[in-house]
Write a structure and sequence with these properties.
It comes from Platanthera guangdongensis. Helices cover about 80% and strands about 0% of the residues. The chain is an all-alpha fold. Helix 1 runs parallel beside helix 8, helix 3 crosses helix 5 and helix 3 packs parallel to helix 13. The N terminus is likely disordered.
Length: about 350
């Protein structure tokens, strides 16, 4: 999934080159201060990179601070806040931009103003995310189950064909000694399936965030208006910080109980670096093509509108189904009224603050 995301974003970064020479409505980005705008863009790259690193790294502090562990109450509150941020990103930031792009007067009225393409693409993306979520989780569960069966068959042969005895010893070993074989048995009862699902969630969520991050990076980098860039630097720094918290929380839960610590740590670091670099790289690409890129050209509007619509559908689905529903229906939350109140307030704070940022970004 991460490799797929890499090539997908690489294709995204190529799309400005395909639309640079397209004629369209007049470009209104310039205000005659290109040197000042370059300085602001460099500041933006540094500020957004730092904000992304801090945001996505905060949830990992649970490894050193037990109070922030994945099963602690405060972690549920942090995740609810981050999920609210992601939900607001989809509904308030990305989807309205998609509607604006695909209903622009720079586009031919037929068919772009005859049908709500933005909402349709968002719906299709949400359904597609559901399909990927379901198929990928089912596939990894089947692979995991097949490995368990092979292990049991091998153990059965070693013990003279007494399957019942092997399974009994297998479970006893887990309870008494925490042996890795026991972890397999435990995962078969649901823990492993839950872990696999969380890994799928983290990778699909990163894909949705990355698509949006690249687009806003290119848009900022292509702008030559200091008055436009200044508020965007602050707003996008907070934007990436909050989104990083949401992604970081998913990554921590997805890799919390791995039996292959070195591999999983490397995989998590790769995903963190990938997330942190997308917006700065998008800004760099925008700087490179700013002299020829016209964000109001028909092809630019169509490509960005469709990509934004798809990203919003992915993020809305992930926030509601995989983040909020899973945590709000967790037995730990359901049996604790105070925790329910806290995470609802946290959700409203996250969604409210991120919605407020839409005034500037």
């Amino acid at each position: 999934m991460t490799i797929f995301s890499f090539f997908f974003v690489f294709a995204l970064l190529l799309h400005p080159a395909l639309i640079c020479g397209d004629c369209g409505c007049d470009d209104e980005r310039h205000d005659g201060n290109r040197s000042r705008s370059i300085s602001l863009k460099l500041i933006a790259i540094f500020a957004i990179l730092v904000a992304s690193v801090i945001g996505v790294s905060l949830p990992t502090l649970g490894k050193w601070l037990p109070a922030l562990g994945p099963e602690k109450s405060i972690f549920f509150a942090v995740k609810a806040f981050a999920a609210g941020v992601i939900l607001a990103t989809g509904f308030v930031h990305i989807l309205p931009d998609a509607f604006e792009s695909l209903s622009s007067p720079c586009l031919n009225p037929s068919p772009w103003r005859d049908f709500p393409f933005a909402g349709f693409v968002a719906m299709v993306a949400a359904i597609g995310t559901l399909a990927v979520d379901s198929v990928a989780t089912g596939y990894y569960n089947r692979v995991h189950h097949d490995r368990e069966n092979k292990f049991i068959e091998a153990a059965d042969q070693e013990n003279g064909g007494n399957t019942g005895e092997v399974q009994s010893v297998h479970v006893h070993t887990h309870a008494a000694h925490g042996h890795s074989h026991g972890a397999r048995s435990s995962s078969r009862e649901g823990g492993g399936g839950d872990l696999i699902r969380r890994r799928v969630i983290s990778q699909v969520l990163e894909l949705g965030i990355v698509v949006h991050s690249v687009i806003i990076g290119i848009s900022l980098g292509a702008s030559d208006s200091p008055s436009t860039i200044k508020p965007l630097v602050v707003a996008l720094s907070f934007h990436q910080f909050f989104e990083g918290m949401g992604l970081g929380g998913c990554l921590v839960q997805a890799h919390a109980h791995s039996n292959v610590a070195q591999f999983e740590t490397r995989n998590m670091i790769t995903m963190i670096i990938f997330f942190c670099m997308t917006t700065p790289v998008g800004i760099a690409v925008g700087i490179g093509i700013s002299s020829v890129y016209n964000e109001n050209s028909p092809k630019a509007l169509i490509v960005e509108g469709i990509l934004n619509s798809g990203a919003s559908g992915i993020l809305i689905y992930m926030a509601l189904v995989d983040l909020l529903a899973a945590d709000f229906m967790n037995p730990k939350v359901q049996n604790n009224t105070n925790l329910q109140i806290v995470i609802h307030i946290s959700l409203l704070l996250g969604a409210g603050l991120m919605s407020l940022l839409a005034k500037w970004a």
